Amino acid sequence: MRRLLILLLVLVFGLSYLPDPLAVDYGAILAPPSAAHLLGTDQLGRDVAARLIAGARLTLGLTLATLAVTAVSGTVLGAVAGHLGLRAVPRIADVVAALPTILVGLITAAILGPGLPSVVVAVCAVGWSPFTRQAYHLTVRETGREYVEAARSLGAGPVRVITRHIAPNIAGPVLAHLCLRFAGTLLTVSGLSFLGLGVQPPVAEWGAMVADGRTYLFSSPHLVLAPAVAVVLTASLATALGRSALRE
User: Fold this and answer.
1) Cβ count within 10 A of residue 225
2) Which of 73, 85, 87, 115 has its CA at 20 to 30 Å from residue 20's CA atom?
3) pTM (2 d.p.)
4) φ and ψ at 46, to 5 degrees?
């Protein structure tokens, strides 16, 4: 948790101590890491550290936003289906979960064009299914327990049973799953941007930064290593947080 708080503080306040991430400096093109530029500069002389933090705000913000939408919608759908015995819902979720998100992103980009809307639609179109399956099975398990039967016998309707009785008992596993899904969602968002389906230049985004720097991988590896390491470390941190939540 401390590491997560430190990361958030760096993202919030880091840009105030770094150059403009969009500022071009043709006199410092592909400069290596130095005191002036902590992570070097890119092919246009832009500070990589500044772009990394600016990109973090967009990448992590987009990841959290899409994850929140898919988690809430999927969990609600799964809980309702589990309580009402709608067995077709988890089967539909199984089919959707089998769809490659990258393929959905390509189709979405062909329809809507590259950009943030395409990434959001592609991730949300597939991302709800794991939460639906989990919430369905957890709700089916809880629905058969005595406290739910007691609530029903006292006249509680389906909405009250789900929100007041079942939801608190499945919240822990759902939150742990949310942390574990963060890593996959982050990689998907970055992967779609890497393929050119997400944000467009000159906006900084981790996946797009890796794509821009791959041409200079051997001459200026910091262009690829900085955003790639940021993605791996953030995904690993979220996964470790999810695993610790599961153990608790």
Assistant:
1) 16
2) 115
3) 0.84
4) -80, 140
